[in-house]
Amino acid sequence: MTELFADKFKNKILSQKRGLIGIAQINPIAGNIEYNAKKVVKYINLAQSIESDLVVFPELTLMGYPIEDTIDRYPIIVEDNIKWLKEIAKITTKTCAIIGFVEPREDINVGKKYYNSLAVIQNGAIKSIVRKSLLPTYCEFNDYRYFEPSPVVGCQSADTLCNFDESKIENCPKTIIINGIKYGISICEDCWNNKEFFNDNVLYSKDPVEELSKENPDVFINCSASPTRAKKEQLKHNMLSFISKKYKTPFVYVNQVGAIDNSSFDGSSRVFNKEGKLIARAKSFEEQFLIVNPIKNIGEIYPLTNGSEKTLAEVKEYTLEYEPDLERTYKTILQGIRDYFNKTGFEKAVIGLSGGLDSSVCAVLLADALGKDNVLGISMPSVITSSESKNDAQNLAQNLGINFLEAPIKNVVDNIDKTLKEIFKKVETKWNNRFEDSFTMDNIQARSRAIFLWGISNEFSKTLPIATSDKSELYMGYATINGDMSGGFAPIADVPKTKLFALAKWLNENRAQKNTIPQSVINKKPGAELAINSETGEPLTAEDALMPYEFLDEIIWRIENKKENYYDMLNAKFLYEKHKNLPKEQKIEWLDKFYRRMSNALYKWSIMPPSIIVDSRSINKHDYKQPITSSKINYKGISEKEISEKLKEFLLCQT
Amino acid sequence: MTELFADKFKNKILSQKRGLIGIAQINPIAGNIEYNAKKVVKYINLAQSIESDLVVFPELTLMGYPIEDTIDRYPIIVEDNIKWLKEIAKITTKTCAIIGFVEPREDINVGKKYYNSLAVIQNGAIKSIVRKSLLPTYCEFNDYRYFEPSPVVGCQSADTLCNFDESKIENCPKTIIINGIKYGISICEDCWNNKEFFNDNVLYSKDPVEELSKENPDVFINCSASPTRAKKEQLKHNMLSFISKKYKTPFVYVNQVGAIDNSSFDGSSRVFNKEGKLIARAKSFEEQFLIVNPIKNIGEIYPLTNGSEKTLAEVKEYTLEYEPDLERTYKTILQGIRDYFNKTGFEKAVIGLSGGLDSSVCAVLLADALGKDNVLGISMPSVITSSESKNDAQNLAQNLGINFLEAPIKNVVDNIDKTLKEIFKKVETKWNNRFEDSFTMDNIQARSRAIFLWGISNEFSKTLPIATSDKSELYMGYATINGDMSGGFAPIADVPKTKLFALAKWLNENRAQKNTIPQSVINKKPGAELAINSETGEPLTAEDALMPYEFLDEIIWRIENKKENYYDMLNAKFLYEKHKNLPKEQKIEWLDKFYRRMSNALYKWSIMPPSIIVDSRSINKHDYKQPITSSKINYKGISEKEISEKLKEFLLCQT
Predict the structure, then answer these.
(1) In whole angstroms, what is the distance from residue B380 CA to residue B450 CA?
(2) Domain boundaries B16-311, corresponding CATH code
(3) Which of A458, A480, A599 has the most B C-beta neighbours within 10 Å, making it the best mutation to test the interface with B?
(4) CB distance B407–A427 less than 8 Å?
(5) Binary contact (A34, B638; C-beta < 8 A)
């Protein structure tokens, strides 16, 4: 038990048993009830061994969050989560456990089939049920897709289990008393709707915490599954602090940890006292059992992932100072890779090392997530690849200690090239739409490399190839289908290029081993080395083909963070413009190119491999949805006058 | 004007002007306001030229449905749809138009940013606004993600435009009177919640049509965007007939036509009289302006896509008699291909022709959707490809009249093969996890072919490669990543193999040109011809690798249509078992194989190209969502007793 708390707290906490709460910040596997249930039992045992009043688990504990349509296709796992819940209840003693589960709405015909619920279990039985009222359906959330919103907040009696409807709402207290202390319990989104905190801008008319406060609970408890995203940490901290202070009630917030597909949950469960002061916080990105006493103001504050606090302040202007968000970015992705591999049963990764920034950063992330022996880097030079790039790839692999080999693709590319040229000649006899200039041969190189990576994945068990596309390039569709954008997982798909440069430097400075990524990788201009710039005779850089990354990333930042449109940006002063002369025509050209390319990139976004959402907004298909056939949007808008003229003209043609 | 109605109706209809309604069943482009607005103007003009009382358009007319997060990223198109609406209003005369649009909720802080609304416009001005109350969030629908449900049904005054909130609800009539006739107007899902019709099993507690009925309207109008799916047609017909009969009120139902990405809308707008009898129906899968008079019982009934009526009856047992659904399937996919190409600006398709069923059916669909000159079939034989398959591919192309060429892949495959074998040797020195048997070399063939197809797509403008995977094989993950499952569009991803056989025969019998698909294609056993069966020495068939398609497709049918689980199916009698001896052990083996393979196929589903939803349920990622990391689901479930034993054991280990 000693490892549960630092020694300085041990005596203090255990001498204050009344009000003792164990926060079980667990990492579940979606749909694997037995796996999740055993974690629950382990922590209930621990809580009982220290005779705490309560042990609280995250939202949908037994099922894992999110579970999506899985429960529609496999209703049997919902049955199982009820069975496990009932069996687990039997092992509880005086210590009370609060466990999330999917509750079927049996015998009820109106509405969706399930509630997102919590069971309060104690002394061998289910004591009470709490159901989620506010169902987020935005960004990565789909709650309303498969859950019915609860018509009432707080506790309802145990006999409503699987059989609760509006006509049965009991007028008994919505709070619950455990060992003499009154608790107001809610689920995740239920605590995110305080009108005062959000300046009256809220998503729902109802505020469950406000309703619970009317019964003057001694402590609020909220069971959550809230993924980490840029700028969310401070918002969450401030909001929970505000609520506890406003209602003069301590607030216990339990969060899920671990990644489920695209969402990386950061844990960092926490407790605020009734003055709104943080008195306990669990680790970020780690499973943990944290013991607190919110009434007695006792708990331990583990540090947030370094720098997270600093990302909290809302950034008003675009800056290249990414430092405050880099450790969070690193850990978010690391957990994303590790859990994707662990939970799907993969162990090893194979990655093409070009000597460029994207693959170098990915290789470091993979080595740290999976262990260096489980990573294989392959340098696959083509005729365009410089000897510097080859050396950089080899040096990086050597520094990291991952497995490495070189496999020139020249023969394969030449062979495909030759065959394709013959095919093109034949096609030309039928179609007259051949491009004068094309990227075909550039893409052949990227696709040949992917054939090797997928080949290794097919030939060696539990091995996944890695897609190395970054966010800036995905926005521009500057990624090869079945080439660099293909893989079993895409670690950096939500990291823009300028941030990747910062991350590379940060990795070089902050990992135990310093300067793993060769300085030359960071110094060189990004480019896929797939083609030669006819003007310079040098390999074409990405910025030749697109626009300066600093400018490109600021467009992305403005769209995602400030919701600016084309004209907002045309009139804004970009960071790039502060230190470089940028003629208006050039700015217009780049902005138009951005919008045109972004529209044409929609298809590529739709077939991207699983990747981790990192930023405040993303183009991950689970986070942003746009019909591919809407690509002809008029992003510049139109004036009333123009419409009126167009109408006149159109009407003339009609007659 | 004469082409508007058959001559027999012309005089009858035009002599009954009062109550005349034009149903404008249009095919919009999502987000392209100008394109959609011009269609609206065209049909308003038409309606005004025949002096009809009304012209009604589908849901979200100006925006196209669905629009998804596009309006969040491009709020400017919402501004534009309001501007266009106001300008269009100015050209209206006595004829009243009902137009769908996205309505911003300005000055309102609680809830989502938009309503899904209709504007009733007449005599140069907006007369009234109707807002959608019931927001579907299941299958391919995401309405609640970006719309706020309306707190009130029916009409509200024009001055609530963009500025409506609950506190402003007017107690004026919810119906609207136009030329002396009273209309009760609703939007799509609003009419799908009749408790009586659905035997009290409904998704929402509120029934907007029931509420409107209290004001005794003369006619109901519902503006919809409802995609076609197997078995939906009869349900829709019966429901609308039931409602009109129940309320003794004619019902005018206007549907969108055309495809938006994965959803193919069938149009088939219709009118029921107050006895619940169908009196008018527009064409399926075609834009049309249909003139009706619901009060006078006047209209034309265009035939449903042949056989659709017969698909209506709920099939209680699995059958290979797909005939009733084949024309609908054909037209659904045809429209899907055509609109995907048209709306994204592509014109030509390139497809690998193996001489097998999947690619043959795809080629016919492409030729019919895009025109034979816009299709290029390539036979890419490997060493395993039989001469019969080569001939079949060529014969099919010849029959169809599409462009054709042969490009052997042997050299390229050999070259990659050789290089990969060297790589594998090197990898083996580092890792000891090489498979004894692998599919690596099989996949190389499929991937080499995709390299050629994508190469042509890169080299020739407006040309997309086609993914030929079918539904049965996708369920089993029996498709090669970056190989046959890669492409710009996947026409048959929602058609199971046994249905494809039926579709092939149907195409041979029902297209103008008979027997396009060589009989030998239909006769041969499906198989990718990627490997040799070591037992028979013949190319490995898909059924060798999987299980009989008849059995496989019945599993899919039972899961999708009857929601059966593993044990339900183990105990059910399959069609296959009725004519073949199937030992229980074999059945168990196949069922287990199915579930195991389906779980491992989740990743492949997530990276599938856009495809058309055809069936009542699908694995299209916009229709079915399951975390990839949930692949370890216990699909067999567990008993209380087993749980209790597992718990005991686990607790013993813990102490």
Answers:
(1) 10
(2) 3.60.110.10
(3) A458
(4) no
(5) yes
Please, what is the average pLDDT of chain B?
93
Provide the 10 A C-beta neighbour count for residue A514.
Answer: 10
Which whole number is the average pLDDT over A124-144?
97
Q: Look up residue A337 and give its two tokens.
A: 């890779």
User: How many CA atoms lie less than 13 Å away from B66 in the CB half-sphere?
Assistant: 25
Catalytic residue (choose from A96, A188, A191, A362): A188
Chain B residues lying within 8 Å of A559, measured CB to CB: 73
Give the C-alpha separation, A544 to A541, whole Å: 5
Residues 6+ apart with CB under 8 A from A400: A363, A364, A367, A372, A375, A377, A516
Convert the pLDDT of each residue in A414-424 to its tens digit.
999 999 999 99
C-alpha A205/C-alpha A193 separation (Å) is: 8
A425: Cβ contacts below 8 Å, ≥ 6 apart: none
Element of type H or E holding B326: helix B326-344
Q: What are the tokens at A438?
A: 């094309």
CA distance B620 to B605: 7
CA neighbor of A197 nearest in space, from A152, A253, A237, A162: A237
Per-position DSSP letters for A56-98, written without gaps between them: E--TTTTT-S--TTHHHH-HHHHHHHHHHHHHHHHT--SSEEE
Kindly tell me if the per-residue pLDDT of A25 is higher than 50: yes
Mutate to test the interface with A, among B460, B561, B654 (most CBs of A within 10 A): B460
So what's the architecture of B346-546 in CATH? 3-Layer(aba) Sandwich (3.40)
End-to-end CA distance of chain A, in Å? 87
| For chain B, domain boundaries | 16-311, 346-546
User: Can you give the pTM of this predicted structure?
Assistant: 0.96
* Statement: A346-630 belongs to CATH 3.90.180.10: no
A401 at B interface, C-beta within 8 A = no
Which of the four CATH numbers 3.60.110.10, 1.10.3720.10, 3.40.50.11780, 3.20.20.20 does domain A20-311 have?
3.60.110.10
Query: B541 and chain A: CB distance < 8 Å anywhere?
Result: no
pLDDT at A312 over 60: no
Distance between CA atoms of residues A325 and B61, nearest Å: 43
Residue B432: Cβ-neighbour burial (10 angstroms; 0-12, 13-18, 19+): exposed
Contact of B168 with chain A, judged by CB distance below 8 Å, is answered with no
**In angstroms, rounded to a whole number, what is the distance separating the alpha carbons of residues B435 and B229?**
42
CB A471 within 8 A of CB A493: yes
Match 């038409």 to its residue by tokens: B46
Q: Strands, DSSP E only, in A397-519?
A: 403-406, 463-465
Closest by CA position to A268, among listed A240, A287, A249? A287
Q: Does the active-site annotation cover A59? A: yes
Q: Of the given ranges (A539-548, B246-255, B348-357, B516-525), which has the lowest mean pLDDT? A: A539-548
Question: What are A371-384's pLDDT values in tens digits?
Answer: 999 999 999 998 88
Percent of chain B with pLDDT strictly greater than 70? 96
Q: Which residues pair with B465 in a beta bridge?
A: B350
> Which residues on B lie below 8 Å from A459 (Cβ)?
420, 424, 427, 434-435, 438, 440
Average pLDDT for chain A: 93
Closest-CA residue of chain A to B598: A73
- Could you say which of B416, B444, B452 has the minimum Cβ distance to residue A420? B452
Alpha carbons A171 and A181: distance in angstroms, whole number:
20
Catalytic residue among A132, A274, A343, A499: A132
Please state, for a pLDDT cut of 70, what percent of chain A lies above it: 96
Residues 60-119 (A) with a CB less than 8 A from some CB of B? 64, 66-70, 73-77, 79-80, 83-84, 86-88, 91, 109-112
